[in-house]
Amino acid sequence: ERATLLVMPKILVTGSLTYDLFFTYEGSFQEGITRGDLDHLSLCFVTQNHARAHGGTGANIAWNLHLLHEDPLLVGTVGHDGGPYCAFLQEHGVSTTHVDMLHEHATSTAVIGTDSSQRQITFFHPGADAKGVWPVSRLAPSTISCAITAPRDVRVTMEALTWCHQQSIPCVFDPGQNMLCFTTDDLRRGLGLAAGLVVNASEWETLVSLLSASLEDVLSVVPWVIGTHGAEGCRVHTRDESLRLPACSVTTVVDPTGAGDAFRAGLLAGMARGWPLVDGCKLGAALAAKVVGQQGCLLPMCDLDEVFQKVRTVYGSALCLPPLS
């Protein structure tokens, strides 16, 4: 049978829409950054390649959900230069009905440097996103199956988590690289409002350090934690068990940027269907493996047969698919 995903109620995605500038350094950032140099840091990494692309956590996740035959509800903010970005998304089937345009500001911009070991240094200007508002009166809770608060302005993130909790919509808390923008009270409150937490290894270390907490402490507040570890796969922790999933193999790693957002799209698609957490992670891992093999965050297309075959090959079992429509 051909792999297919039956269209379900909408998945709400709030996050940034960003113009990304990518730079690739063929050496190691460690060559220039050492502990002894930090007090007098002044250096330049000369890069051999650069590219411009559409990105941002919200747009990336929504794009991947669309590739999985979902109809995501994208909530975000762009600036006066965001018209072409919204048009681009609409042309490719991603609705921007709930993406606001603020003409007094520029669209978010990210400058992302990656070295030969896939380490990254990012500079991010939030632009219009820092002035965004949560469109509470324009959303219909009954049409939403689940949600995610991907990294964007902290104020809007907290409003989104609160609204989802009030509407009994399971919402994934994804503070990401914005972790240091949250107060410790925000982080604790966010965990208490969320259905689950998704972080990478670095973000997890930052979180537990800020909260002076252990895994057990965090799981006493939020039902589950998923930690992504790049080529080492991911770990799924619930109050009952912890398990590790290996990553899907990649022939050539071109750029890891956006892989985490692809993983989250798979996780959300699984949540919307009532799959076990681990099955959503498998789908996300297979999709993420495709993203790291290209430059830029947005896959031009996605062969679902290939993605589901990847899951069967790597994990030894098929996902529980709905009937063909």
Features:
325 residues; alpha/beta; 9-stranded mixed beta sheet; 4-stranded mixed beta sheet; 9 helices; 13 strands
Can you describe what's shown?
The protein has 325 residues and is of the alpha/beta class. The strands form 2 sheets. A 9-stranded mixed β-sheet has the order 5-4-1-8-9-10-11-12-13, sandwiched between helices. The protein has a 4-stranded mixed β-sheet with strand order 3-2-6-7. The longest helix has 15 residues. The model has no long low-confidence stretch (mean pLDDT 90).
Summarize the structure in short:
By secondary structure, the chain is of the alpha/beta class.
Number of helices: 9
Helix content: 25-40%
Q: What is the mean predicted local confidence, pLDDT?
A: 90
| Biggest β-sheet strands, sense, barrel | 9 strands, mixed
Protein structure class: alpha/beta
Widest sheet: strand ordering = 5-4-1-8-9-10-11-12-13
Secondary-structure blueprint:
Elements: E1 10-14, E2 18-24, E3 49-55, H1 57-67, E4 73-79, H2 83-91, E5 98-102, E6 108-114, E7 120-125, E8 144-149, H3 154-166, E9 171-173, H4 184-193, E10 196-200, H5 201-211, H6 215-219, E11 224-228, E12 234-238, E13 242-245, H7 259-272, H8 277-291, H9 304-315
Parallel strand pairs: 1-4, 1-8, 2-6, 4-5, 8-9, 9-10, 10-11
Antiparallel strand pairs: 2-3, 6-7, 11-12, 12-13
Helix pairs in contact: 1-7, 3-4, 7-8, 8-9
